Each structure stands twice: as C-alpha cells, then as structure tokens.
Amino acid sequence: MSELKGVIPAIRNYKDFERALESNHKYIIFLETRISQIGNLVRYAKQKNKKVLVHTDLIQGLKADEFGMEYLLHELKVDGIISTRGNVISIAKKHGILAVQRLFVLDSHALDHNIKIMNNVKPDYIEVLPGLVPKMIKEINERTGLPIVAGGLIRTKEDIQNAYDGGAMAVTTSRTDLW
Q1: Tens of pLDDT along 2-28?
Q2: Strand ranges (DSSP E) for 15-173?
Q3: Which residues of the chain have pLDDT under 50?
Q4: Residue 1: per-residue pLDDT
Q5: What is the value of pTM for the model shown?
Q6: Distance between CA atoms of residues 91 and 86, nearest Å
Q7: What domains are there in the chain, each with its CATH number?
Q8: CA nearest 30: which of 55, 8, 48, 47?
Q9: Mapped to the 3 state alphabet, what secondary structure does 92-123 carry?
C-alpha cells in the first residue's frame, strides 16, 4: 500500500491544478470536476509523475458504482479513490488501488454507525472531516486501527499541526498557501 503523509493538495479548479503540478507533492486529489474533464486531467498529472486520487462522489456525471469505478480503474488508471460509500471502497480494495473512506463527524450516532461500516470494509485510510478535531482523529484511529487523513476546514499551519498531534498521518487541503 502506498503511504499518504504530509499535506496533500486537493484540487478544485484548473489554476490550483497547475500549481499542484509544479509542487513537489507526490499525490494530488481531484475533488470537483466533470467526467468530460477528468480523463485529460488525470493523464496530464500522470505525465508530470503525480499519483492521482479521485473523489468519486464529487465528479459530475460519474456514477459512483461498479461501472464508474471500471472507468476510473481501467481507462484512467487512477492510483486511488476517495468516497463516502462503502461499496466504492470495496471495489477499489478488490482492484488493489488506494481506498480512502471519507467520514463526516456529525454526531455520536453517525460516528458509531460509520465506524462499524469501516471496520467491515477496511479502507486503507479514513479521511476525517472536519479535520479540526484532534480528539476525534485519535478516537477513530484507536477504534478502527486504520491510518487517518484529516481534511475539511483546514485553514492554517496550526490546523495542520493539530491534526498531526491528534494522530493524522496526512492532511488534505484546497488552501494553496498551505501546500
């Protein structure tokens, strides 16, 4: 399994994509784009020796199911995916690509429910949102035994350090000044 660590650029627009390509970051994440654009973006990123993670739930026009995953895996050859959906994580694991399950910490009930799912699905990483709650990062890591990526509302270097202090291995952010 590839290891995610450090700050990982999360790309929302073409300007940020260009900046991420010029950076020394190994991984980049495509958050919001359209199916008509994702192919060219992935191919160009790979030409620049970047490993590409795609947030399957946020690609407009892509259904996050077996056929959508088939396209990402066989046509685009992405290095990994991010999703809130356990079935998508299972497909990624079956095909040997990096699987990051996104978890929104809304309340105790949602947390307990999602931890049960993750303990069954066993993603490679869990991305905890918002990433501003080090105590929750630590608890989720302890309850699942899985490495944690912090994301969402990361706005300062202090936020990044707090996530690391809570046990996160990596932090995702679309704030280019933090890349």
Answers
A1: 699 999 999 999 999 999 999 999 999
A2: 27-30, 33-34, 51-55, 59-60, 80-83, 98-104, 125-129, 148-150, 170-173
A3: none
A4: 59
A5: 0.93
A6: 9
A7: 6-178 (3.20.20.70)
A8: 55
A9: HHHCCCEEEEEEECCCHHHHHHHHHHHHHHCC
